[in-house]
Amino acid sequence: AQKITQTQPGMFVQEKEAVTLDCTYDTSDPSYGLFWYKQPSSGEMIFLIYQGSYDQQNATEGRYSLNFQKARKSANLVISASQLGDSAMYFCAMREGSSGTYKYIFGTGTRLKVLA
Amino acid sequence: DTGVSQDPRHKITKRGQNVTFRCDPISEHNRLYWYRQTLGQGPEFLTYFQNEAQLEKSRLLSDRFSAERPKGSFSTLEIQRTEQGDSAMYLCASSLEYRREGPGELFFGEGSRLTVL
Questions:
Q1: Are the Cβ atoms of A109 and B105 closer than 8 angstroms?
Q2: Cβ atoms within 10 A of the Cβ of A67, count?
Q3: Which tens digit of pLDDT belongs to each residue from B68-91?
Q4: DSSP states along A58-94
Q5: Which of A26, B10, B14, B72 is close enough to A3 for a disulfide, judged by CB 3.0 to 4.6 Å?
């Protein structure tokens, strides 16, 4: 069964510093996608970055990068040059694909607080 | 199209009443998902549709929950005989089939917050 684990309930980072949010996953499907979402206090879920299981390179989107270690089944999000507006909940999610269903499951999230 | 819209945004009801939420997805998206989120937790999968077909429903979902997507457009989520434990944010999301275009990320609505007294 697919599972996403985020072991850091909360993280603090100084403004302009980099921070890594951990995510490990479990699946037996060779084809899957990994996603990170940001949920500010206003509540909307914002898509940040995607990594496909067959992608050879780590995904990057502006200040976001995904440290994908397939053998370890980890997909950590790295935020560089943190800004006060990065304070939010961050969720890792996975979608399996080979089985013909396209269910997305989410981790429990990490609350990030950026300090001025 | 401005995104996924959900209605109502807030609903307060008494235990035992029925409630219905509506979701209008992004018009070209063929997949539609319902999730439930409680405070401090991640979204919990409830069910999803591809066009009008309901392809999967969470085993955690009791028979009091039902969802429809007539004609493959908007969707409704009905909760019958509400209980206090049903109090949560109900999130709707839609996506394109990922092989066609892009990674198939979910686009979320702003959610419908349910409070059961």
A1: no
A2: 16
A3: 999 889 999 999 999 999 999 999
A4: --EETTEEEEEETTTTEEEEEE-S--GGG-EEEEEEE
A5: A26
